Amino acid sequence: MKLLILDAGHCLSLALVREASRRSDTELVIEVGLALDAGRLEEIAPDALVIPPLARPISAEPAAVTAHAEAVEACMEACLAADVPLVWCVSDQLYQDGFEAPIDEHVIPAPRDESLRRLVATGARIRAEHPRHLIVRLGPLFALEGSNAWLNELIDTLVAGGELRGESDVTFCPTSADAVAMALIGMLQQQHCGAGAWGSYHLAGTEPVSAYTFISMVRTQLATRLEGRGERLELGGVKALHHHHDQPLRRVLNCRRVLAVFGVHQKPWRLELGRMLDAWCRANDRSRSDAEVEE
Known about the structure:
Elements: E1 2-5, H1 11-21, E2 27-30, H2 38-44, E3 48-51, H3 62-82, E4 86-91, H4 114-129, E5 133-138, E6 141-142, H5 151-159, E7 164-167, E8 170-172, E9 175-176, H6 177-192, E10 199-203, E11 209-210, H7 211-228, E12 238-241, E13 249-250, H8 256-262, H9 269-294
Parallel strand pairs: 1-2, 1-3, 3-4, 4-5, 5-10, 6-9, 7-12, 8-13
Antiparallel strand pairs: 8-11
Helix pairs in contact: 1-6, 2-3, 3-4, 5-7, 7-9
């Protein structure tokens, strides 16, 4: 199976590269940006085109959101012309006001923000015009490398002694980019073998948590690992923010359909976070050793 991945530096694109490198049944072709025409698509002839999500669209500049939406629609048109399936990953922030209960796949986002509505319109076009599509709505992605990786930003700030801030009244399900990559390739392998299960799916980590609690957990686990290695480092602090005083916001994706259709289980974010922090500590140890050798 050959996949064409756009936005080469995105944390999800890098995770797909890592996952594909461990397999013998998946070939990746990576494009730097989101621009793609039908000629290039026909030349590569992939079994699917994968577009990583625009991270944190709520806080993104409206022009950036519009540009992303337009690029996705241009890709959809190219996919239609070349008869190539389209996979578009989308942030859970499109459910701007959240829901009391976990959000099912059939619930179409209806945000108040005009920029977010532009992304919803793109999703509507894909559902109406391209039968062979997967729209995969994701919880907040975290990874150690790549753009929009989030976790690397948190670690860098803590190590530099800076303060992190997170909402204590916004609940979501942090999602490992590596887990998403593994799930996407598994889903597309089944589609490549004729599953024909096109449509919208939700994919997120287990255990809903507030932004503040997640960031606090990053700090606690990082401090524990550094202390265990005998490193004395004063990490920055974490401050709770309160943006939804009257009604805490819950943005929790119901991921039962991806399990029922593809057999994809959600990965616990705590385990994924611990694994990534272990990897960061090992890389940090190697960097220090190399620096000592050079001295």
